[in-house]
Amino acid sequence: MKAQLILVIVAAVLTVPALHAQDVDFDTEVKPILKASCYKCHGAKRQRGKLRLDHWSDAFTKGDHALLVPGKPEKSELLRRATLEEDDPDFMPKDGEPLTKSQLATLQKWIAGGAKWPAGKAAGAESEARWRSQFAIPELTEPQKAAQAKAIAAVRKAGGLANRIAADTPAIDVNLSLIGKDVNDDTLAALSGLETSLVWLNLSRTKVSDGGLGRVATHTHLRRLHLARTGVGDAGLGHLQSLKGLRYLNLYGTSVGDAGLEHLQDLKELEKVFLWQTKVTDAGVKKLQAALPDCAIDVGKYAKPVVHAPKAMPKPINATCPITNKAVDGTCSVEHQGQLIAFCCGNCLASFKKEPGKWLPKIEEFKKK
Predict the structure, then answer these.
(1) Is the full-model pTM beyond 0.85?
(2) What's the pLDDT band for 11 if we cut at 50, 70, 90?
(3) Residue 119 has what DSSP assignment?
């Protein structure tokens, strides 16, 4: 029934003149809904599913399952999830009260009107521009193209992956995490020639150390850097100060501490930093957050799910089946006149349900009630 609610809302709003669909004000009507129901799990302090709803670059994405599709509420995943049954694993919000019909109607009208936000621009277009800007690197010269091709071949020969991000950009993505322990600081020499085009680099689970990051630092177009479960520490982060355009940094499982975070304070483009299982303290994280107020810093301190102990199954009053005199199976039971009676099998249970008066006299325990 609830899953059909979105269809009712859509149908109702489509009967309203288009002008009204654009009258929804983000600051006074939409943002309070998102703040109350979404930011707890998808805000600055926590990004469940790596989703941040206070940053529209995360919400307005392309594809068949975009969370918000301006002008198309019927294709917006946010509304679909908000109208599922509460026991559905995809239902949102996970925590707190479900959205009311009025709140859903407000979101629907806002999206139908183009999902305008305070700047008055198309959020989807701005998101696209922001996303593509990380690949906006200067056109390569012929010598740079030759150096790039040589480096790509070297990375692949070492067992790593090296590919262009898209056909319309010379930007390169390199992934060495798949060969993990076979990668060390010397392996990074294969990156030579990508200084003008490397934008994504994954070194997770490799043997790269602080010294190796000195070679990474020369790739000043880097936007995403994965260093999870490496030997990188505080000193290594000092090499990253040249990466002024870095937006994503994963330090999960490293020995980085508060001293290392000091080196990140001037990287103003940082949007997400992962610090799970590191040596940072709350004070260090707070200081970094003050320097980078728009950065989502994830230290993995999520609320633990509440696990409720299973309810104890009531015990049948009888130990033997009144029909066969065999030991009962607790899963084959029925409540009769407020008392749980068990049987040895489903057939006996069915016989009892058909003629309870015939078998009750054989249950001594029932007579004692």
Answers:
(1) no
(2) very low
(3) T
